Amino acid sequence: MLRLFPFNSTRFLSRGLKNTCSNSFQHKDLIIRKTEKRFPKPKNTADVPFGKIYSDHLLNVDWVEGKGWGKPEIRPFEGFQLHPAAKVLHSSLELFEGAKAYYGIDGKIRIFRPQLNMERMRRSAERCAFPDFDAKEAVKLLKELVKMDSDWVPRCAGSSLYLRPTMIGTEPTLGLAESKEVKLFMICSPVGQNYFKSEGTGVRLLADTSFVRSWPGGVGSYKMGCNYAPTIYVQQLAAKRDCHQVMWLQGKEQLVTEAGAMNLFMFWKNEQGEEELITAPLDTGLLLPGITRRSILELAREWGEFKVSERSFTMADVVKAIDENRVYEFFSSGTAAVVGGISEIQYVDRSIGVDRTLRLPTMASKHKVMQRMYDTITGIQYGRIQKDGWAEIVEL
Amino acid sequence: MLRLFPFNSTRFLSRGLKNTCSNSFQHKDLIIRKTEKRFPKPKNTADVPFGKIYSDHLLNVDWVEGKGWGKPEIRPFEGFQLHPAAKVLHSSLELFEGAKAYYGIDGKIRIFRPQLNMERMRRSAERCAFPDFDAKEAVKLLKELVKMDSDWVPRCAGSSLYLRPTMIGTEPTLGLAESKEVKLFMICSPVGQNYFKSEGTGVRLLADTSFVRSWPGGVGSYKMGCNYAPTIYVQQLAAKRDCHQVMWLQGKEQLVTEAGAMNLFMFWKNEQGEEELITAPLDTGLLLPGITRRSILELAREWGEFKVSERSFTMADVVKAIDENRVYEFFSSGTAAVVGGISEIQYVDRSIGVDRTLRLPTMASKHKVMQRMYDTITGIQYGRIQKDGWAEIVEL
Q1: Do A81 and B81 touch (CB under 8 A)?
Q2: B165 CB near a chain A CB, below 8 Å?
Q3: Is residue A331 part of a domain?
Q4: Closest CA to B277 of B302, B248, B306
Q5: Contact status, residue A18 vs residue A135, Cβ threshold 8 Å
Q6: Coiled-coil intervals in this record (chains A, B) (predicted)?
């Protein structure tokens, strides 16, 4: 497979290879300006939809070419005044991260592996021609923000405070060039339990080969805003077919890549008769290097109970395995939903007149790989399970 | 070639096929709020760089799901208050257009084919899951804005007032979904003569196969902001090699597509010994349907002096033709620069160790196809040449 993608564009990037950045903003410079009017909090977070309510404060730090980073500031949550020609509004110079803070059974607040988010953010920033920063300093600032709005971390089981670090190009010029002014900000949003309204019955995916999310030589492996705009229209087509999400296939081979907001895993009996947990590899540059994805792979390898593979697999592999009853579980992973069982794939290939509904036995699986992953990861997130370095406590 | 791209995603879209939209904003509802403090104008527009100065007013019209379009308003140029979770800042729900107003030799102000911009904008809006509007009403509003700021249309030869209609998703929610709030705005920027600082000597392009702009099943044929963010980093690599722009190749075949801000034309003697003006076709969905591109094709077909082709051609075709001295002119087309002669292509294919500088005789061509195109199109734009429907006069 790999020879089809000889140019993994990641090899041109250097950030994340080195761990420090000498010209970063610094946590020690943090300015805090407390709000005077606090927003009302939702009564029952379990029912709060994803990303619609925000906490009292945000973190902001601006960068200007020649001057460097300014002082980070935690300030009342309010709108930004943006110039109508700001680059983010025209050439999509923007990137984001997604993390979560959890209220643990011991009353402590934890963020799940935030250092990985900030390292990924540096990598996205390089591809966006944005300035570098020190990931450790960014994590400290994120923790300060969560500390400031700690009463926004829902106490309700399964709920959490979603954290959205973002960078945007704010220079007010229309030419196609790098942004000489950049804003980094972080906002917090309390979220309920279910990213999808599909609890128990599983998620349905539309895999329509007419639409392609990423490609060799593109930016599919960076968390840049530009990867998402083209998916909304296709998402609407999926919704018309009563699907929750799109499953993105790539190339003539119809490689299984990811689901836009989530990575994809299959637990199956492979062609060699082995039990295997498989997910698409990162070296193609076609999919986002998810932090939940990485955590699942690390846990599965620690368990050592079955084969764990990061390698390309195709829609044909999936169809054949379903037809031969060799697929046990097919599930997604991501910060928003942790893991989500997939119950159905609507596979559409207009070039050969295929429109087929594939049913998956995920929700009834006796192997419970997905369920154990969910229990382990949420266990770490809510402090029921200890795992060194995976859950950073926010000191209050 | 075409069988490689059986799924031109344009076929799923309907806007632009029908000419009207019953739920549009209306020019008759226009509200005008004049500025009280006017900005200083540049003394000599010829030296003004692209997209850095803006006129006194902007046009704004907002849409909300369920309510529809509000009343369009021309108002003092000022920043927007945007919610930090506005969809445009996270999932790049944004698109734009580029047009120009010209001060003619007869003292009249003309906009070049604005109806085509607005039809293209409707098409981009559909792909962004944005609401539809009536292109004719949008043209009327654009003209009103130019009329309001008519003293910003530079009098200086070769200069013009660049017009930037834009749509952004403003709904303040983080979920990956369509924006239930949308802002359409138009801003104006006086611009000098030269988009590139290369007058006379020609533009140099970097064609590096490691980076790919668009792909079958993607949105390369829509003027969405998301197409541009991934190009900035590559543009910086090009600048390091003293190139002005990137020439984007696609696929294993290395199809010549476009140059990011511009379409590409080659005037050559083809393999059959015919003089031919060739440009990449639109039905692959890989390139932007430029209005200058379309105008050049229409003019060339009217002239009837040589073969005019919209068909795929490859980098190998170009290299072979250069080696056999069959390329007469290679040039770009776009609103910003009209046409721009290309003097050099730095062709890099790391997979086979190629790094070759290809020199093009464009600037010394005796055929002067590009020069005649420039003279004709700018002649129409500045009122020296009459061509029905190509230059809409702004009534003052």
Answers
A1: yes
A2: no
A3: yes
A4: B306
A5: no
A6: none
- In this prediction, residue A313 has a pLDDT band, given cuts at 50, 70 and 90, of very high
Assign residue A375 the CATH number of its domain: 3.20.10.10
**Boundary (domain end) residue, out of A146, A162, A193:** A193
Specify whether B235 is located in the same domain as B134.
no
Same domain, B209 and B183: no
> What is the C-alpha separation between A109 and A62, in angstroms, rounded?
28
> Which three-class secondary structure state does DSSP give residue A220?
coil
pLDDT tens figures, B6-40: 334 444 455 655 667 879 999 999 999 999 999 99
Q: How far is B340 from B190, CA to CA, in rounded Å?
A: 20
B372 and B226, same structural domain? Answer: yes
Checking if the pLDDT of A163 tops 50, the result is: yes
Interface probe for A, chosen from B15, B89, B227, B246 (most Cβ of A below 10 Å), is B89
Residue A379 amino acid letter: G
Q: What is the pLDDT averaged over residues B120-142?
A: 97
Q: Does B247 touch chain A (CB under 8 A)?
A: no
Domain boundaries, position A250: 203-381
On the question of pLDDT at B298 being above 50, the answer is yes
Mean pLDDT across A224-241: 97
- Kindly state the average pLDDT of the residues B287-315: 98
How many residues comprise chain B?
396
Cβ-nearest to A212 among B209, B211, B215 = B215
A186 alpha carbon, distance to own chain's centre: 15
Residue A287 placed within a domain: yes
Can you state the angle between helices A135-148 and A114-127, rounded to 10 degrees? 120
Q: What's the CA dihedral at B193, B212, B9, B266 to 10 degrees?
A: 50
pLDDT of the residue at A13: 54
For residues A123 and A19, is the Cβ–Cβ distance under 8 A? no
B300: pLDDT strictly greater than 70? yes
Q: Select the residue of A7, A90, A164 nearest B166 (Cβ to Cβ).
A: A90
Residue of B nearest to A86 (CA): B79
- The chain-wide mean pLDDT, for chain A, equals 93
**Partner-chain residue, chosen from A54, A173, A211, that has the shortest CB–CB distance to B85:** A54
How many residue pairs bridge chain A and chain B with CB atoms within 8 Å of each other?
A: 214
Supply B159's token pair: 């200069």
Question: Taking 50 as the threshold, does the pLDDT of residue A6 lie above it?
Answer: no
- Residues of B with CB below 8 A from A99's CB? none
Classified as helix, coil or strand, A263 is strand
Q: Are residues A177 and A225 in the same domain?
A: no
B189 and B222 housed in the same domain: no
A160 and A210 together in one domain? no
| CA A391 – CA A382 distance, rounded (Å) | 9
In residues, how long is chain A? 396
* Domain end call among B148, B168, B193: B193
Is residue B396 domain-resident? no
A152 and A220 belong to one structural domain: no
* A84: nearest CB among B58, B216, B232: B58
pLDDT score, position B11: 46
- CA nearest to A119, candidates A19, A5, A256: A19
CATH number for the domain including B137? Answer: 3.30.470.10
For the segment A67-109, what is each residue's pLDDT rounded down to a tens digit?
Answer: 999 999 999 999 999 999 999 999 999 999 999 999 999 999 9
Give B233's contacts in chain A (Cβ within 8 Å). Answer: 126-129
Query: Does A176 contact B at CB distance below 8 Å?
Result: yes
Count of domains forming chain A: 2
Those residues whose C-beta lies under 8 Å from the C-beta of residue B94, and which sit 6 or more positions away, are: A89, A90, A92, A229, B88, B128, B166, B167, B168, B169, B224, B225, B226
Q: Which residue has the tokens 């499953």?
A: A247
Distance CA B85, CA A153 (A): 18
User: Cβ contacts (< 8 Å) between B216 and chain A: which residues?
Assistant: 212
Together in a domain, B183 and B220: no
